[in-house]
Design goal:
The protein has about 120 residues and is mainly β. About 0% of the residues lie in helices and about 55% in strands. It has no helices and 9 strands. Strands 1, 3, 6, 7 and 9 form a 5-stranded antiparallel sheet that branches. The protein has a 4-stranded antiparallel sheet with strand order 2-8-4-5, with no helix packed on it.
Length: about 120
């Protein structure tokens, strides 16, 4: 079983517009490459008063509508990595981050895939 980095952000600034971690842009994606994925974010750039929201999207079936299936809030100073559980994704997924409160921050992140 091999683990690879499927997608990566390197010091990409996140503001109040939802940002796709897959593309590093505010254009949301619908990835249909099947696999077992896990999101890792280095949130150590956050400061007191900051709040960011992380969302994961997927479709129930290929012709379905992409919907949020998991949401987390990161608040204040962070000294640890944020790591999601692993998810089996297939039909049209994306992982995003948005600033809710505070200053825009430049995050590093990776989406890892089990092959």
């Amino acid at each position: 079983m091999a683990i690879t980095t499927a997608y990566e952000l390197s010091a990409v600034t996140v503001g109040a517009t939802e940002l796709s971690i897959v593309s590093g842009t505010t254009t949301l994606q619908s990835i249909t490459t099947p696999g077992v994925y896990q999101l890792v974010i280095d949130a150590s750039v956050m400061a007191k008063g900051d709040e960011f929201r992380v969302k994961l999207y997927e479709k129930c079936k290929a012709a379905g509508t992409k919907r949020v299936f998991s949401v987390w809030s990161l608040q204040g100073v962070q000294s640890e990595l944020f790591i999601t559980p692993t998810f089996m994704l297939l039909n049209g997924w994306d992982m995003t981050i948005t600033k809710l409160v505070g200053t825009d921050r430049a995050f590093d992140a990776s989406i890892r895939k089990v092959a």
